[in-house]
Amino acid sequence: MGSYSTNHGDHKLVFRQLFEKESSTYTYLLADASHPQNPALLIDPVDKTADRDLALVKELGLKLIYAINTHVHADHVTGSGLIKTKFPGVKSIISKASNAKADLFVEPGDKIYFGDIFLEVRATPGHTLGCVTYVTGDESNQLQPRMAFTGDALLIRGCGRTDFQGGSSDKLYDSQIFTLPKDTLVYPAHDYKGFTVSTVGEEMLYNPRLSKDKETFENIMQNLHLSYPKMMDVAVPANMVCGLQETKSE
Ligand SMILES: N[C@@H](CCC(=O)N[C@@H](CSS)C(=O)NCC(=O)O)C(=O)O
Ligand SMILES: [Fe+2]
Q: I need a surface site. Which of 17, 132, 190, 235 has the fewest CB within 10 A?
């Protein structure tokens, strides 16, 4: 289910799942096509594919208003800064807890509106301190099932590593992702196995890490033995400033 436009009562949600293959990153394009201006947002854009994403926005006749990140990525540079240089009206968004730069900062419980649809912010720390999950909603609750953009907190049959940038397996386990309704669709920031979508209920049953008890989970996370992302030294400082490397004025 990578791409659809669907009617939910009064709402017409445009949804596209886009992939950046070098970092196996998913970027998501959402828009409210029931609204006269077709307001749209991108979740977790990548610098390398920003032009592709902006061309799609244009082709679909959408008005991009937000470039949103789920967290300070360590494996790729966000497209937010580049997008802002090309579409100056676009506002970048990240969680306040990330301590990164952006135009707007969100906290748990905040709602990011695009037309009559919103993304509700939920704190899901543990992969990094400032990780959040964005969950679709609307005032009349017609937009069902909900879609959760989980960043690296919950991956399909996996989860984000917890060994850098304020990571904590204790916090990730307690981050309450599984309190969302079981039919909530799970859309992660990465997939390394070819999956595109899951549900909360499916992950509660089959996630080989988060379905376990806390002690087993923490033991699994301590023994992943993953090498650090290749781009980490470039990506983290760049993403702390929204992807734009600021030039120093003399
Ligand atoms: N090989 C990749 C990095 C892979 C990696 O560490 N992925 C992160 C998410 S990006 S911060 C992760 O949390 N992975 C969890 C897992 O179980 O794989 C590279 O070199 O970029
Ligand atoms: Fe990450």
A: 17
